Amino acid sequence: MRARPSRQANGFTIVEILVVVAIVGLLAAILIPSFNRMKRSAQSTLCVGKLREIGIALNTYFLDHGSTFPTLVAARESREEDNPAIDTVLLDYVVDEYAFQCPSDHMGIFEKTGSSYFWNSLINGQKTANMDMLGLTDKASGIPIASDKENFHEHVGDGVNMLYADGHVLRELQFIVEEP
After folding, report:
1. Residues 141, 168: contact at Cβ < 8 Å?
2. Could you tell me if residue 66 is inside a domain?
3. Could you give the number of structural domains in the chain?
4. What is the rounded CA–CA span in Å between residue 24 and residue 20?
5. Residue 118 lies in a domain
6. Of 1, 48, 108, 159, which residue is the least packed, with the fewest Cβ within 10 Å?
7. What is the C-alpha to C-alpha distance for residues 46 and 171, in angstroms, rounded to an integer?
8. Of 103, 121, 105, nearest to 113 (Cα)?
């Protein structure tokens, strides 16, 4: 009797291929949403950095203008408007015009208006030593200077980033009250 030669498998079976495809699909389903959340969170953090950069630019502006806040419009509808705005007056004090663009601004607000941020016009022309905004006089940590124009960061807590007079940046939660 002759022994039959053993047959060696040279490829994968269909079951093995299906198992590998299922595992890859499962990993993609888990990792892609996590990656997207991480990306949006990083963009929100970069936005906080941009607002801090605006705060530093404002402090440099104070050195040149006797510690007096500039008189600016809260926001412009278009870059074409000839109004003093945050992105025009503080432009000489930042690295470039993109300091006024929130990385999460996917609505094109920066491109249209020149800034992703609002200016608090209630502090226009005030001296830093004796600020007063609606009765807040001794709490620079409670006086907002600039904030996101839109809720760009709804994925990380439904709030806007806000720069305060003491230089800190905080995410403020927005509460939406629904009518019954």
Report:
1. yes
2. yes
3. 1
4. 6
5. yes
6. 1
7. 13
8. 105
pLDDT at 152 over 70: yes
Structural domain including 141 reads 45-173
**What integer pLDDT is reported at residue 1 of this predicted model?**
60
Is residue 72 one of the residues assigned to a domain? Answer: yes
Residue 160 burial (CB count, 10 A): 23
With a CB cutoff of 8 Å and minimum separation 6, the contacts of 50 are 99, 100, 101, 102, 103, 117
Judge contact between 161 and 51, C-beta under 8 A: yes
pLDDT band of residue 8 (cuts 50, 70, 90) is: low
Q: What is the pLDDT of residue 111?
A: 94
pTM score: 0.75
The span from the CA of 126 to the CA of 69, in Å, is: 5
Query: What distance in Å separates the CA atoms of residue 92 and residue 60, rounded to the nearest whole number?
Result: 10
Look at the block and give the residue holding tokens 């291929």: 17
If you average pLDDT over residues 12-31, what whole number do you get? 90
Which has the closest alpha carbon to 80: 48, 120, 58, 112?
112
Distance CA 164, CA 69 (A): 13
| 3: in domain | no
What was the pLDDT predicted at 175? Answer: 44
Tokens of 169: 């940046």
CB 156 within 8 A of CB 41: yes
